[in-house]
Amino acid sequence: MESDRELVENEDIEVELVLDALLKKSDYDYRNYSRSHIKRRLSHRLTVSGYNRYSDMIPDIIYNPQFLNKLLSDLSINVTEMFRDPSFFLELKDKIFPYIKTYPFVKIWHAGCSSGQEVYSMAILLSEDNLYEKSQIYATDFNREILDVAKRAIYPIDTIKKYTNNYQQGGGQNSFADYYIADYDSAAIIPSLKKNVLFSFHNLVTDGIFGEMHVIVCRNVLIYFDKELQNSVLKLFYESLVPGGFLCLGSKESIRFSEVEKLFEVVSSSEKIFRKRVC
Ligand SMILES: C[S@@+](CC[C@H](N)C(=O)[O-])C[C@H]1O[C@@H](n2cnc3c(N)ncnc32)[C@H](O)[C@@H]1O
Fold this sequence. Notes:
three-stranded antiparallel sheet; 9 helices; Bact_Chemotaxis_MeTrfase; methyltransferase; transferase; S-adenosylmethionine-dependent methyltransferase activity; SAM-dependent_MTases_sf
């Protein structure tokens, strides 16, 4: 019989072997994601498959492409919505837009943009403040399928009620209906909001800096990373920002205890907005 300690140690070994197999078969590197998140997602696939141990999944990862795809989609969390956490967007308008107004052009990077709703929320607020024309938005994710959804920008009509509510609470000035074209069960974002948005693949684990950005928005992504990976991604963001550039994280995320903590000033502690210090 395994002791409780052995049980946990052996389970950890199995998880590492599963993640190694995943990396070798798919190029997705989940080794530095939060172990509790990974275990939760793997446990789900374990139950559905009727296996007893994590390591029972390894032959399927290697030899069964359908299983591999299912597992990869289990691990990918793409939950998002327009004007998610409306108070963040109020703060964006209040604390960041006044600076943007003084720049001749603005480069904004949405890292981990999922299906694009956060990006189009930004585009709407920029256009309402006459800032969209001088903005270039780069929106990246490491999930190619979700990037295709983002580029299409067609969302289920039953999400619109919630999005409209969020838009109003997030400082929207017009009617949200101005920004989509409804068609039976879907709502398509109007083309003018897509004009200055470039979607592309970027993996925060393996890819490098992304140019000189004025604003980086990376919300609800770091929460899935372990401390080491959070630290290296925060360094990547620091290096990708101009001096005085802004970093926006999700409500449960932080730069505290990272190597870059002292290199940023806190702009909004509640909405997790930070500004790169001008040395
Ligand atoms: C929960 S969604 C957050 C979407 C949006 N930022 C929001 O807050 O509504 C997390 C996104 O991060 C992406 N992601 C996770 N790991 C990533 C990585 N290593 N590189 C790039 N994107 C990643 C996922 O594919 C997913 O689309």
